From TrEMBL:
Top-level lineage group: Eukaryota
GO molecular function, one term: metal ion binding
Protein name, entry field: Fe2OG dioxygenase domain-containing protein
Source organism: Ambrosia artemisiifolia
Keywords for this protein: Iron, Metal-binding, Oxidoreductase
Upper classification of the organism: Eukaryota, Viridiplantae, Streptophyta, Embryophyta, Tracheophyta
SUPFAM superfamilies found in the cross-reference section: Clavaminate synthase-like
Classification via Pfam families: 2OG-FeII_Oxy (PF03171), DIOX_N (PF14226)
Length: 260
């Protein structure tokens, strides 16, 4: 946490079958025509679907908010497909509930918020320059307290080291990636690092698969909460407005809606 802001966890109690099921059902939704998906897009009343070219031309996502993940998923699914999708809604409910429990355990261990699940889809461009990296999602930090990510076997997630080098965070079966967000960075007075990261588009080993799907669960404080560092982590150089300055610098941009 202090050096990189990223770590893997295992024995988290979330089955591979649930990952596979939610990935498959999500791919079905993402394969729908754009005109259907945009019924839940930025100019709709729901604003749960982020289309291509908002954060990146190769990135799209569907936001499912807690605490009632099933109801939120049902509203979005019905909007984009014009019919109920109980299997997708139930899978999202189970995954969201498990992520909320896991997030609480991790934050209790690290320091001590409601969260939301963002289902991300990264598509390879039709024309690519061989040997040149293409960013599916550019460099950013997460504004969450914690982010817990399931990434499929395609990979592409990279973290930026303190000396500016990009390092791969390769997926391995049975693990989840956890990264520290801006809130926890601020709350710990910088002792826990919120690292810059990005997603590089890669081709899957299976030639029939051309897109990367990740499930990013963002664990956040309520919007009305004021964050300040506890006395235990505040040093002599602490400034009372450090948290406010931190988030004035970040601002509210498309990165609010970005995933990994």
């Amino acid at each position: 946490c202090k050096e990189w802001g990223f770590f893997h966890i295992i024995n988290h109690g979330i089955s591979k079958d649930l990952y596979s099921k939610l990935r498959s059902l999500s791919c079905q939704l993402f394969s729908l025509p754009d005109e259907l998906k945009l019924k839940a897009g930025p100019v709709s009343n729901m604003k749960t679907y982020t289309p291509h070219f908002i954060a990146s031309p190769f990135f799209e996502s569907l936001r499912v908010s807690g605490p009632d993940f099933r109801a939120s998923a049902q509203s979005s699914a019905e909007a984009v497909s014009n019919q109920p999708n109980s299997e997708f809604c139930e899978a999202v409910r189970e995954y969201g509930d498990k992520m909320r429990i896991l997030s609480k355990k991790i934050t209790q261990i690290l320091l001590i918020c409601e969260g939301y699940l963002r289902i991300n889809n990264y598509s390879l461009p039709e024309k690519r320059v061989k040997g040149k990296d293409v960013e599916g999602l550019g460099m950013h930090t997460d504004m969450s307290c914690l982010t817990i990510v399931y990434q499929d076997d395609i990979g592409g997630l990279q973290v930026r080291s303190k000396d500016g080098k990009w390092l791969n965070i390769d997926p391995f079966e049975g693990s989840l990636v956890v990264n520290i967000g801006d809130l926890l960075h601020a709350w710990s007075n910088g002792k826990l690092r919120s690292s810059e990261h990005r997603v590089i588009l890669k081709e899957g080993k299976n030639q029939n698969r051309s897109s990367r799907v990740s499930l990013a669960f963002f664990w956040c404080f309520e919007d009305s909460k004021v964050v300040s560092a506890p006395n235990e982590v505040v040093g002599d150089e602490f400034r009372e407005n450090s948290v406010r300055g931190k988030f004035e610098k970040v601002g509210f941009t498309v990165k609010d809606f970005a995933g990994i």
